[in-house]
Specification:
Layout: H1 14-22, E1 27-31, E2 34-37, H2 38-54, E3 62-65, H3 71-83, E4 86-89, H4 96-106, E5 110-113, H5 115-125, E6 133-136, E7 151-154, H6 155-159, E8 175-180, E9 190-194, H7 195-209, E10 216-219, H8 226-238, E11 241-244, H9 250-259, E12 264-267, H10 269-276, E13 290-293, H11 300-309, E14 314-319, E15 328-330, E16 344-345, E17 349-354, E18 366-373, E19 379-380, H12 384-390, E20 391-393, E21 406-416, E22 422-426
Helix pairs in contact: 1-2, 1-8, 2-3, 4-5, 7-8, 10-11
């Protein structure tokens, strides 16, 4: 019988189980002055799962996590997965009304947060009928704490309990998370992701970034953003160490890269613009072997500055959809030849460029980007109309086996050149 070190993960939390079986004493997660080894991370996740189950978490029930990047926030999300539930990461910069919408829309049963953030959402909790428990990572509130129907507990109480019901059985096609879009064109929509989406994404991204056990990955992006959460999944897939950072100034990042001997960083163009102009002392970036960007085109002047600041690093220019987790990357050796390209499909995905009638575009012809494969999410939470508009069958012979296959139609206009490289043209 295979042990956890030998077993290929099918479920999200099994990424940690395998890493803990292979590298139990090695650092898996760092936040500030605190470090959890992989063995400690696994224990924390299993304890959180038992706590959630002991508080009545049913199969696929939602656990919302409204925290900055902390050890507990990661344990809560992966603990929901290990229990057989689902998690909803909430961007910690959102305000009360925005958080209230996500809690109501997702039907979250438990909320993991801090006392300061609780005060910001107290009024919104009155309109969250599904919510039964609020778990606070820094003690109980001193004053009134919202609806009487909600039970308030500490994180220590959650993870310090004894026996609980067995975890709910899940398969890789089951939902494990709801990631909410930014809501720039209306109320945020929840994108439902399965265990398969998450594990396939980790396997794919880790393969082309060449993540390994010795990597030390700096987590800069919010964990509520698909690319930010991907830092966790790719790192755990490789058994790497992930350093969590909620930064205020570019200098905070410089110090972490130097002091933690970071090997990999992923950001978005506005962040990279700040870091490109930061003061990078000699030798401070010697350990960095790659930097990656997503969420928009990297301006060429910024890319040039970053390559000077990180002379030993390979640049990866990426594009992704929350609806498909990750989609394309530009191989580093192409960065000089085509820095404005979003590359080509990541491993285990296919990207097609289609006309309005569903036929493939010719090279140089603009069309809509369509993503097919294991990373296509399950659709929008409780929104069948929006799901039907974006998640549609692949036309004609483009599918497999003669059966309808659902792909995600991005709404983004791209063009493919004669060599197969993609270029973003608009939305």
């Amino acid at each position: 019988m295979m042990n956890d070190a030998e077993r290929t993960p099918n479920l999200l939390h099994e990424l940690v189980w395998r890493a803990a079986a292979r590298f139990p004493a090695d650092a898996g997660l760092i936040a500030g002055s605190r470090t959890w080894s992989y063995a400690e991370l696994e224990t924390a996740i299993r304890s959180a799962a038992r706590g959630f189950l002991g508080r009545g978490l049913a199969r696929h029930d939602r656990v919302a996590v409204y925290l900055p990047k902390t050890l507990e926030s990661v344990a809560a999300m992966f603990g929901a997965s290990a229990a057989g539930g689902s998690f909803v990461p909430v961007n910690p910069v959102l305000k009360g009304d925005q958080v209230g919408h996500i809690l109501r829309d997702s039907g979250a049963k438990l909320l993991v947060t801090s006392t300061s953030r609780l005060q910001a959402v107290i009024a919104a909790l009155e309109n969250c009928p599904a919510l039964t428990h609020v778990i606070l990572t820094d003690g109980l509130p001193a004053g009134p704490s919202g609806p009487a129907s909600v039970q308030y507990e500490t994180w220590d109480a959650l993870v310090g309990g004894g026996a609980s019901p067995a975890p709910h059985r899940c398969i890789d096609g089951d939902m494990v998370a709801i990631f909410y879009t930014s809501g720039s064109t209306g109320l945020p929509k929840g994108v439902v992701l399965s265990h398969r989406n998450m594990v396939a994404g980790a396997t794919s991204v880790a393969s082309y970034l060449e993540n390994v056990h010795g990597d030390r990955i700096l987590s800069l992006l919010p964990l509520s953003f698909d690319a930010g959460f991907s830092q966790l999944t790719t790192g755990f897939h490789a058994g790497a160490c992930i350093v969590l950072l909620d930064y205020l100034l570019a200098g905070d990042v410089v110090r972490q890269v130097r002091d933690q001997r970071i090997t990999g960083i992923t950001g978005v163009p506005p962040l990279w613009s700040q870091l490109a102009d930061a003061n990078w002392p000699a030798g401070s970036t010697d350990t960095v072997r790659y930097f990656a960007t997503t969420g928009g085109v990297m301006p060429r002047p910024v890319l040039d500055k970053l390559r000077a600041a990180f002379p030993r690093a390979r640049p990866f220019l990426m594009y992704g959809l929350t609806e498909a987790f990750r989609s394309t990357y530009l191989p580093p050796e192409e960065a000089d030849r085509r820095p404005d390209s979003i590359g080509w499909a990541i491993p285990n995905a296919e990207i097609l460029v289609l006309r309005p009638d569903g036929t493939p575009c010719d090279p140089g012809e603009s069309g809509e980007l369509m993503h097919r494969g294991a990373l296509v999410s399950l659709g929008y939470w409780k929104n069948p109309t929006a799901t039907a508009e974006r998640f549609k069958p692949i036309p004609g012979s483009l599918g497999t086996g003669g059966q309808p296959e659902i792909a995600v139609w991005s709404g983004d206009t791209v063009v493919r050149d004669a060599e197969g490289f993609l270029y973003f043209r608009g939305r």
